[in-house]
């Protein structure tokens, strides 16, 4: 009779899914079951779920000393994802199912006490890793659509432990989930609010178009009720859908968090809107077992921070590094996890605590010191990383009752063309230009360089702000179809630095 069986599975480490061998050994001695290999609480509790599931499914639970090793032993294991491979390992070690078929697949799933398979988070990273290893993956049926988002992965699904056992015995094949792959995912652009709803605000609408075309960070500043959030909510409708690689990265982060994935809409860019009471851990990730935060859930999409100065300053400061690097490393005493965080920041704020500083129709009640303290909640280094800082003033009744603005579909066409020019020229959006590439592709003509030199001296722009002005000017040239960055592009780019001008 076999005494040892091995079932393959996958753990979670950030957005990666390292291989885990579930080794099950039966020995003589007092009956008992022990799990080794750095299991956390949910993994240790699997012995009770597995025992009940095996007995309720009509199998014998061996009255022997059972040792389960989760290898590699120095990799922390968490969650209920190892229930299924543990159960299959016990059945194979006790001779109730053949052990050879276990080696051809990887197994992930939580067991209910009656043997049903329940979904677990992190199936997509496991499917991608299994495909690279050349093995198929067996998952609970509810996880099958997520696992098959990767066209390279071969995923089989089951609803009950008995179905898996019949598959191992060669009595009935588990169904493949290939038919659940979305043939043509929708981009969902029509689902976003239309820019035609916005009356007036010509500079703010132009800033939206520039931000969408170049991937630039954007901040709206204005009194309450002038349409800052209304404008920001129209930005996703101007962006192209994710390509397959981007969509897989974004979906992997959502999978780790257990968020539902809609196969027909999985290429929509994320739009995350955390409340201003969010903690630093909620925003960048953390916890005793590191988990992604809002900036990672917004990977390849947009992060909208309304009432920006109301966020805790220490929370906002943690955004500085990911805005530059596109990733976040969450470190804890015993573990580290790296998550992608290449997001486009969109924010809105009032100009002062009461909100009416500079409003021609309402008097501001704030003292200069109150305004200074309010704006000091946003550090200079953070503002430097926001390319477009645009005022959103109050609109007159005549404008509000006027004709609708340009529709999102029209603006989106110009954005697509500008993005295509950038990809053809440099292989990335202008927001990502740096170093020699920025000098080669965004260097202004002589008149533009002279204008920028005067602006730097008068506004005391930092080197980072200087580079961001160049990137925005390059995007303005791309929207126009111009080969070179001219003085008019530099001049317009400088107009989008309203907070730099306000502090002079």
- What gap, in angstroms, lies between the N and C termini? 84 Å
**Segments where pLDDT lies below 50 for 5+ residues?**
none
Q: What kind of assembly state do the chains in view correspond to?
A: single chain
What class do helices, strands and sheet pairing give? Answer: alpha/beta
- The gross shape turns out to be elongated
How confident is the prediction overall: mean pLDDT?
91
Instruction: State the CATH topology of the largest domain.
Output: Rossmann fold
Total helical segments: 22
The major beta sheet can be summarized as:
5 strands, parallel
Helix percent band: 25-40%
> Could you tell me the number of beta strands?
18
CATH class type of the largest domain: Alpha Beta
Relevant CATH superfamily of the largest domain: P-loop containing nucleotide triphosphate hydrolases
Number of domains: 2
- Rg (C-alpha, Å): 28 Å
Share in β-strands: 15-25%
Q: Largest beta sheet: what is the strand line-up? A: 11-14-17-10-18
Give me the CATH architecture of the largest domain, please: 3-Layer(aba) Sandwich
């Amino acid at each position: 009779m076999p005494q040892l069986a091995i079932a393959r599975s996958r753990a979670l480490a950030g957005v990666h899914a390292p291989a885990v061998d579930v080794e099950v050994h039966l020995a003589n001695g007092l009956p008992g079951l022990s799990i080794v290999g750095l299991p956390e609480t949910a993994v240790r509790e699997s012995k009770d779920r597995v025992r009940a599931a095996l007995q309720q499914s009509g199998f014998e639970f061996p009255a022997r000393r059972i040792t389960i090793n989760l290898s590699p032993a120095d990799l922390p294991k968490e969650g209920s994802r190892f229930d299924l491979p543990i159960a299959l390992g016990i059945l194979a070690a006790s001779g109730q199912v053949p052990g050879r078929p276990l080696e051809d697949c990887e197994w992930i799933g939580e067991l209910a006490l009656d043997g049903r398979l329940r979904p677990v988070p992190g199936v997509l990273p496991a499917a991608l890793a299994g495909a690279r290893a050349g093995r198929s993956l067996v998952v609970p049926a509810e996880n099958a659509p997520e696992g098959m988002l990767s066209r390279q992965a071969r995923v089989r699904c089951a609803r009950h432990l008995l179905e898996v056992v019949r598959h191992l015995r060669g009595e009935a094949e588990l169904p493949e989930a290939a038919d659940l792959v979305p043939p043509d995912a929708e981009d969902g652009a029509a689902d976003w609010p239309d820019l035609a709803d916005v009356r007036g605000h010509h500079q703010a609408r132009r800033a939206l178009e520039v931000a969408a075309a170049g991937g630039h960070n954007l901040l709206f500043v204005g009194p309450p009720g002038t349409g800052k959030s209304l404008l920001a909510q129209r930005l996703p409708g101007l962006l192209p859908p994710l390509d397959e690689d981007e969509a897989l990265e974004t979906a992997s982060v959502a999978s780790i968090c257990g968020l539902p994935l809609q196969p027909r809409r999985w290429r929509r860019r994320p739009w995350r809107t955390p409340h201003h009471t969010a903690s630093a851990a909620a925003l960048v990730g953390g916890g005793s077992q590191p988990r992604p935060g809002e900036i990672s859930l917004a990977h390849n999409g947009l992060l909208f921070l309304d009432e920006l100065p109301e966020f805790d300053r220490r929370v906002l400061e943690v955004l500085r590094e990911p805005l530059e690097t596109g990733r976040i490393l969450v470190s804890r005493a015993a573990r580290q996890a790296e998550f992608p965080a290449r997001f486009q920041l969109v924010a809105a704020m009032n100009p002062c605590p009461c909100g009416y500083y500079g409003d021609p129709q309402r008097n501001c009640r704030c003292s200069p010191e109150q305004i200074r303290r309010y704006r000091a909640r946003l550090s200079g280094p953070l503002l430097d990383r926001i390319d477009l800082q645009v005022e959103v003033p109050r609109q007159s009744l005549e404008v509000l009752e006027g004709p609708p603005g340009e529709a999102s579909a029209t603006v989106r066409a110009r954005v697509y063309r500008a993005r295509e020019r950038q990809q053809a020229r440099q292989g990335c959006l202008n927001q990502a230009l740096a170093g020699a590439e920025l000098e080669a592709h965004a260097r202004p003509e002589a008149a533009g360089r002279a204008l920028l030199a005067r602006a730097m001296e008068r506004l005391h722009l930092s080197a980072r702000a200087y580079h961001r002005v160049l990137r925005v000017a390059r995007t303005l040239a791309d929207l126009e179809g111009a080969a070179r960055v001219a003085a008019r592009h530099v001049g317009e780019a400088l107009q989008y630095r309203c907070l730099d001008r306000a502090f002079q």
